[in-house]
Model the fold of this input.
Amino acid sequence: MTQEHPITPSLELLKHWEEQHFDEGENYDVMLIQAYQAGADQELEACCEWLDQNTGRWDLLAELRTARRPKPPSLKEQSLALIDKIQSNKEMWQTDDLDVVRRALESLPD
Done:
């Protein structure tokens, strides 16, 4: 693999992926997704570093990270959205949608 490109996986990460594949029999699709995500994370960090060095606006760094790596909605948020969807009857809902509600309810204490 060439080291000329600025976004290249570290040797430790390559070794980890190799172990995952050979020791754990990890699926290539999973490993490709991990590699894609790692490259995107490196690119985001390079952009943040550039912003920091060229603008001095540390507040932009947090905004950029939040915009590019949003947190997934919680089970509660997902469940409430599904209930709204069902109540409004604007869209058909799927049986898989109920799995989200079930997981949210199961996570609640008795």
The first helix runs from residue 11 to 24.
